[in-house]
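Why run this: before we spend reagent on co-expression, it is cheaper to look at a predicted model of the complex and decide which construct boundaries make sense. The entries below are exactly what would go into the expression plan.
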Amino acid sequence: MEHLAYVAFGIYTLIILTGGLMAVLCRSMVRALVGLILTLFGVAGCYLLMAAPFIALMQILIYVGAVSILILFAIMLTRAPAGAEEAPYIFPWRSLAALAVAFLPLAVIGGMIRSGQVAPLVPPEEVPLAELGQTLIEPYLLAFELISVILTVAMAGAVILGFERRIGK
Amino acid sequence: MNIPPELIHISIALAAIAAFIGLNGLVLVYLERKVAGFIQRRPGPYEVGPWGLLQPVADAVKLVGKQLVRPKVADPWLYWAAPLLSFTPIFLLFLVIPFGPTLTGMEFNYGLLLILAFTGLNVLALCLAGWSSANKYSLLGAARSVAQSIAYEIPLLLAVLAIAFQFGTLNLTEMVHQQGQWPWQWNIMFQPLAFVIYFLCAIAETNRAPFDLPEAESELTAGFHTEYSGMAFGLFFLAEYAYIIVVSCVAVVLFLGGWQGPGAPGFWWFLLKVYALILVIIWIRWTYPRVRFDQLLNINWKWLLPLALVNLLLTLIFVKI
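The model came back. Tokens follow.
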């Protein structure tokens, strides 16, 4: 079974990388969004490998099922034509700079991992859902409540923005 | 090299599910047309085979034989990906449904959550289908589909959340175990409001009349699948029927005692209840006219959502006491 985990990890990595490249390189907005969704799926798979099926399913429920659909809705409302014209493709400098920025964290984290002591791999154990909930409402209560405050503020802000635009017309 | 038994179990389950989905498609097409005929006082299909029994087979053969056409301006990748994306998650959904005491494809602690998570993919598929067809009716259908599904998902999740609190688990098999054999021991007796909310939202989520605005044929020709022909349309069609079965199965597990029944508990009770619910859904479709879009959203935001919140609060109070 351990070999299967490696194979699955490879597949998920491939999905994540393909999706990421699609999201960055595709000219059409919707295709780029599909790339983003692929990446989110791959990440959900990685959660599964880390024995966190609850988080994996939540990732799919929230990011794939809700957030990405809202993004798609926003794109459709802008009436972007199917073969949308984006900014012209500038190859040399911007692309190189983007690549450098993308690889910088990789180099930093990779270097740290290689230089420091790496803990031996132990098969992760699944945390029961009840324990997860207990942790959220006991030690991390403040952070948990703050997140809901942020969400409320974001929603209120969206409503206010919508009203202002309507008055402007 | 020894193959783990779970893998064999899941493979057999997947094969059985594929057969079940296909057969169900045939049965439901026939049932839908016959019931529609009965309600509208006409015979329904009766030419092909005895009592028209072979009509769905003839329909299926016609669909498979048709040419697949893609509009010239449509996005070539996404256009073909959409029907597949609509259809493939269904196998996962059926995998966790407990059809009988031992008849479950895969015992999974978060079965309910898995079903909720992967049904969301259907909206995405409809959206991609509508957008990539490069047709204004398709696009309108997709936009309606998003507004509708996102809205109705909230009371649906709240109703289901109340049930999950009540049972204290997300495992569908355990939920059935906590309900008794007799109808008054089923959960619908304790959660009638949640059942009504769930049922309405389920009909809306599966785009069934009277909430079938994403494919309203009198206004949008066929909505999001206007441009699809042959089996590409067939996959959407099959997926729609499969989702109806899935929401009925979940309703049976959450509210109607699953495979529990008077006398001998078993998968026969489960299937009986599922088909009874599907008949009710078909009955509703052919009885009520389609709602208008503002009515659709008003029902949701002004009635179902507050009711679902009240229901959640009441459930929490009862669970605590």
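The mean pLDDT of chain B is 84. The two ends of chain B are 54 Å apart (CA to CA). Bring this page to Monday's planning discussion.
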